[in-house]
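Narrative of accomplishments. A recurring question from our advisory board has been how the design workflow behaves on a single, concrete structure rather than in aggregate. To address it, we present the structure tokens for one chain from the evaluation set, followed by the sequence designed for it. No filtering or post-editing was applied between the two.
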């Protein structure tokens, strides 16, 4: 399985989450799961927002733990909204165009999971992508097609309903092809102003996703710990795996749940795929 993280809050150096914690994304990239010795070494990516409207990307097909340029960038950039991803390929080539995040205008997208029977469904799902978006599909992964289907179904206008329509469309196509559990996904999506996250699967096995506690609660829990002082009140992180073992820091996102991290109150709501009419 892949691993990813998203951050929303005041500007910080991405290395604080990618490198500096005990179970950082870099440490997670050395393995596919806590009980597995197989690495997430099939590429990585970092997408972040700075002064402009659109996100910047740095992606490579090399293992994240050995890339000096990633360490340099993550220690110099200051960003209040970013997504990072380490990849474990599931049948598609190890190449830069298959590395997350994927980008369209001001939108970036990361995914952990798979579309069951992808080789069988790929052509039909690609043909469902809106024609003006088709040239933006540069790789061969199911993840990139999920992103462009979400765009096709209205991601720019109404993000969470569009993701529900995307999931419903993929499930319907999978069921028609004979798949019992067509979709497994945690996704992170950002538009420069908000971070959206979803945990969902068609079957009973659902990849993990966690969100950090509110900063005020962490300051009350650990008043002597100075690391929380430079985070703003609305700072939150969403991660595939907890980055530290600190009690009270991470809360598991329930299956079939969507989150919106934003200025002001965050949103948590049920995620219900909508089949095509």
């Amino acid at each position: 399985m892949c691993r990813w993280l998203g951050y929303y809050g005041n500007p910080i150096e991405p290395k604080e989450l990618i490198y500096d914690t005990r179970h950082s994304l870099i440490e997670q990239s050395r393995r596919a799961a806590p009980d597995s010795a197989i690495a997430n070494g099939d590429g990585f990516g970092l997408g972040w927002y700075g002064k402009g409207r659109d996100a910047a990307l740095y992606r490579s097909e090399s293992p994240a733990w050995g890339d000096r340029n990633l360490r340099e960038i993550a220690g110099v950039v200051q960003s209040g909204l970013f997504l990072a991803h380490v990849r474990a390929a599931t049948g598609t080539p190890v190449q830069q165009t298959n590395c997350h995040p994927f980008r369209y205008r001001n939108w970036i997208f990361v995914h952990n999971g798979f579309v069951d029977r992808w080789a069988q469904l790929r052509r039909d799902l690609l043909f469902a992508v809106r024609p003006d978006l088709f040239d933006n599909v540069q790789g061969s992964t199911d993840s990139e097609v999920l992103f462009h289907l979400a765009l096709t179904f209205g991601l720019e206008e109404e993000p969470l309903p569009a993701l529900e329509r995307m999931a419903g469309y993929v499930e319907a196509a999978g069921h028609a092809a004979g798949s019992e559990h067509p979709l497994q996904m945690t996704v992170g999506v950002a538009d420069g102003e908000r971070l959206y996250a979803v945990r969902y699967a068609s079957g009973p096995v659902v990849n993990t996703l966690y969100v950090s506690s509110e900063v005020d609660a962490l300051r009350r829990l650990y008043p002597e710990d100075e690391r929380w002082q430079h985070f703003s009140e609305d700072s939150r992180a969403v991660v595939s795996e907890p980055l530290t073992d600190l009690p009270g820091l991470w809360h598991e996102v329930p299956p079939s749940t969507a989150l919106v991290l934003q200025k002001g109150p965050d949103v948590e709501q049920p995620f219900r795929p909508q089949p095509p009419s």
